[in-house]
């Protein structure tokens, strides 16, 4: 049984660090040539250097992106850095929204696989991951019109799925090392500036949830008008907060995270420790009391991610504020106390954080939608080609403070 689980873990690792990485390298190269057919990756990075260094990942990876006495190549980039270059710095080429969604979904799949490698890879999880990754990579290949790559990827995935696969510790070690590097490169938001707060307030006044994006609610519950001439309907992606967990036991840490997700989602799992299972309803109630104010919520693996579907744009920003201020961590203290009462979890600690990449993803997505509507209504931007996606606050200023 352990052998089978280890084989599945190796196959998941190979799927991400070999097949997914190969496709995303092709995608990044496609974006580079869409900007200029003669460009190399080094040309693209130097042309967008100012934008890159304004992102949260640019300065942290300066030596990789701007090496001395040599030119950066795609092969030298870790997978997570390729993802950032695709979604955060598209230069003059506007990345299709479906590609952005595919990149984020692939990243989520990788995080969930990292957790499963520690806690054990079940048959259902294994099959679901392969199916999801194959669909996402097919979407990417179609959007860049690369039929040969699409066929190649489908055959490779099916072959990997069916054939025996030895215990390739090298690929599994590479997968785990990549996870640790990615985790260490992420930055939690510790404060919201007055300028950001002003943008949030003004954006909440002009943006309204697109019909169909709102959670089910009665007329009395509705917190925003559907639309008016001065309003901009937007679809808001789920806001993602992460529960950072600390224990003295690495394996216990991963298992408690898995069990916490099951409890939040109200899913049964016979493998839960009995002491934790006895507290599931109480823990679920505390989580519901904390997050139901903002909207519907659920949890995902890959550490512990609490995903909230906000009932309004205003509540989205309240969620961000309450997380960064520590208010949500404080509200979940009873959960921490309950878990610390379990044997071997006496040192358990938790903190709810908002990572910069999650924040940027939501804000850039909202801003890009408003940006397009703003242009559709006949407004124009000065120096349009110089406006980077990761600095959409320039767009917000125009949308929020310029009318007619």
Automatic annotation (TrEMBL):
So which domain of life are we looking at? Eukaryota
Name assigned to this protein: Uncharacterized protein
Species of origin reads Dreissena polymorpha
